[in-house]
Amino acid sequence: MTAIEIKHISKRYGKIRALDDISLKVDAGEIFGLIGPDGAGKTTLFRIMTTLMLPDSGSGTVCGLDIVKDYAGLRRIIGYMPGRFSLYQDLSVKENMDYFATLFGTTVRENYGTIKEIYSQIEPFADRRAGKLSGGMKQKLALCCALVHKPSVLFLDEPTTGVDAVSRKDFWNMLFRIKASGVTIFVSTPYMDEAARCDRLALIRDGSIIGTGTPSEIVSGFPFRLLSVRGSRMYRLLKELRNIPGVISCFSFGDSHHVTYDPAVTDRVRILARLSDAGFGDCTAMDIMPCIEDCFMWLSGRRDVPTAGQDGLRA
Amino acid sequence: MWKYLLEKEFKQFFRDPGLPRMALMFPVLMMLVFPFAVSMEIRNINLAVVDGSRSLESSRLIEECISSGYFRLVEVCDSPEEAMRLMDDNDADAIITIGPDFAADVATGAGFPVGIKVNTVNGTRGSIGAQYLQACIRMYLQERNAGAAGMDSVTGTAASSAPVIDVSEKYYFNAYLDYKLFMIPALIVIGITMITAFLPALNIVSEKETGTIEQINVTPVSKTAFIICKMIPYWAISFFVLTACLLIAWAVFGYTCRGNLLWLYLYTTLDIIVMAGLGLLISNYSSNAQQAMFVIWFFAVIFMLMSGIFTPIASMPDWAQAITYFNPMRYYADAMRAVYLKGSSPLEIWYDAAGLAAIGIAMVSWAIASYRKSSD
Question: What is the ipTM of this complex?
């Protein structure tokens, strides 16, 4: 069953093209990840799907309801958690919960089962003002408020941006549990490691979808091989690697360089031999599995757009 | 749901560190401090006298001026030059020059050789000072004529030979030209406008800034309900402020409203509708509090200066008068003064209600139209 289907959606802000002919299909009960750097158009797409904004062209449905015509009905069955904490900081945890429950015509008690697991973690602070909570607590509260009316589809716009690694892991565990209760989750993130945890992905870049599929499909679609190269003079090594025929690209990746090469032209032994000729005799090279980030970099480059480099992506 | 929306707004209002205290202090400050601060009454005008006559008559004239309480005698000079020097040194604000033949001329009715010079560096102080001086001279003449008539009747001779022009003035509605009484309805107007137009606008913009309005927009709550619930607390506060101001004016100054209190509340309600539209309009077109503040400041200044609250509209140039027709505060201030000081009813000041209603309809429809658009 299809939970979300959008067709040929475009949106411009004046001269800037935010979204260009976006089409997506999300199945019910899956975690669908929208992966892309800052400014790719993720939030715009969220705002259109959550009826906060009208697309310039294109159409879409969420749970069979049109995102333009049936906006009123749609708002009853979706939960939206924006990237920025946007609850009332001067109301307490409990008051925020009650408030949003009332706005959806329900009560916290009625849906306590849905949110119990998350809410129980912040319940000891029920009388504390939301503004005085820690970052992780705020995030849990926001998630509770988005879930309080038992939505069928949950939209999470960069929920883990600015959250520490442990809390991020916690958060994803919560998402799996929410998914298990039958909620479709549409989540965006700039973190590539989180992408691998989604059931299916769409890679977005400069307002266009550059690839969709399950994480393994995306990885297996990568036509090249990847080599992790280490040496002593890393910067000079990087320059040298980029000059080797058959090397598609080379980026520094932590304490090593990730070299993408075309297996039809060269291989690991030939690259090492070239390096040794050039005076980098102490190099070691290891074939590695490409990850989502490598695929993303390759897919971005293939579209021949000016490279934004890796700055926009947080590995 | 409405109940809960309202409850939340009131909760937030009372939780704010400043707002509740401000709502309480505002009427007190407005009624107890501002009437004195904005007073246009001029006192302690330094008066220099050049008395060429040095007669009983001339001393009576000087006496009349000093006893009015508006003037402070600085010096009696011998020559006009000496008096002028005092004015140049800023020691004298006004000079009254009495000619040498004053006593004789006044007695025969041949003339009235008195000159007035006024320092008008401060225009208001100068022109009002000149008016006061003229009033004093008129008073002196009246008393003199009365005295002469009395004497005539005693001696039984024919009535005074000199024709006497008697200008008598009677002030209606504010008999003692009490500036405080004049300003109190106007200060209420300013206060209510600030509370009902600008505070809700800032409140809505701050929800925009924190992103909470987005969170509300994805709920099934209608925007109309949300906005109206946002404004209701400020309406309640403005009626509270109106009532408090009227009570303070009565308790402290002993002023009461001459007209039906109901009309004050009626015109206030009309003004609130206009201001609600304006506030919403401002919040629609500004995306942060700083922008909103600037627009508010712009409107607040224009509204106040072009409303007739401080300066009469009738004395503005025609083009400026034309602008005041678009100023809701003009109608509201006029109505409040008319009801409070004159006891008018809406039958007499229907045009104020019509003006407010017309601006209100325009403002609210524009606000709703632009709100719909911005909600896309």
Answer: 0.73
